[in-house]
């Protein structure tokens, strides 16, 4: 039995919980809120040169005004493929081609669509909470293993309390992010 068996890596647990938060932020950025954002195109892939490529690697993505995204496609032969990928992405945006530029006018969201998006945001948040709880469970399993390896009762309680505190903070952060995203979506 080594001293390493008795150490619980709280930093690793924190990093994994932070990773769940980062993934949630990426998912939230991809939700269309009626406001233009370059991140809303992050999940769209274009079939370019025989492989799937993200749009931001096909051209320059700019947001010149609050309700417009402009893509300056570098390879002119790819313009129609980028356009097709956007149309088929499910974003509900109709691209307008103007030479090498593809303009994406962002339409207003109606009330029903806003409510649907808040539900999607809630699903993303719930997935992040599940990921955080899984990290917590792994941390508690590490503590149990350390107990069988000879970790003292007081240390065991201290580690369990710290893992729970990290979990509570992460869940509260997810709830706060969700609240902000839902407010942003419902904002007219």
TrEMBL record:
<comment type="function">
    <text>Responsible for the release of ribosomes from messenger RNA at the termination of protein biosynthesis. May increase the efficiency of translation by recycling ribosomes from one round of translation to another.</text>
</comment>
<keyword id="KW-0963">Cytoplasm</keyword>
<comment type="similarity">
    <text>Belongs to the RRF family.</text>
</comment>
<dbReference type="GO" id="GO:0005829">
    <property type="term" value="C:cytosol"/>
</dbReference>
<dbReference type="GO" id="GO:0002184">
    <property type="term" value="P:cytoplasmic translational termination"/>
</dbReference>
<dbReference type="GO" id="GO:0043023">
    <property type="term" value="F:ribosomal large subunit binding"/>
</dbReference>
<dbReference type="Pfam" id="PF01765">
    <property type="entry name" value="RRF"/>
</dbReference>
<feature type="domain" description="Ribosome recycling factor">
    <location>
        <begin position="24"/>
        <end position="186"/>
    </location>
</feature>
<protein>
    <recommendedName>
        <fullName>Ribosome-recycling factor</fullName>
    </recommendedName>
</protein>
<keyword id="KW-0648">Protein biosynthesis</keyword>
<dbReference type="InterPro" id="IPR036191">
    <property type="entry name" value="RRF_sf"/>
</dbReference>
<dbReference type="InterPro" id="IPR023584">
    <property type="entry name" value="Ribosome_recyc_fac_dom"/>
</dbReference>
<dbReference type="InterPro" id="IPR002661">
    <property type="entry name" value="Ribosome_recyc_fac"/>
</dbReference>
């Amino acid at each position: 039995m080594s001293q390493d068996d008795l150490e619980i890596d709280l930093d690793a647990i924190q990093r994994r919980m932070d990773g769940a938060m980062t993934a949630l932020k990426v998912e939230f950025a991809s939700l269309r809120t009626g406001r233009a954002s370059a991140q809303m195109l992050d999940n769209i892939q274009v079939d370019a040169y025989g492989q799937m490529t993200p749009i931001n690697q096909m051209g320059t993505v700019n947001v010149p005004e609050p309700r417009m995204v402009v893509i300056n496609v570098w390879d002119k032969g790819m313009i129609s493929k980028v356009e097709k990928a956007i149309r088929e992405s499910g974003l509900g945006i109709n691209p307008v081609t103007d030479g090498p530029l593809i303009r994406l006018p962002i339409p207003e969201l109606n009330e029903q669509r806003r409510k649907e998006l808040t539900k999607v945001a809630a699903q993303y948040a719930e997935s992040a909470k599940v990921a955080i709880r899984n990290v917590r469970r792994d941390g508690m399993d590490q503590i149990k293993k350390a107990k069988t390896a000879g970790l003292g009762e007081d240390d065991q309680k201290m580690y369990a309390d710290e893992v729970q505190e990290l979990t509570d903070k992460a869940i509260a952060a997810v709830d706060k992010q969700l609240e902000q995203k839902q407010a942003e979506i419902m904002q007219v």
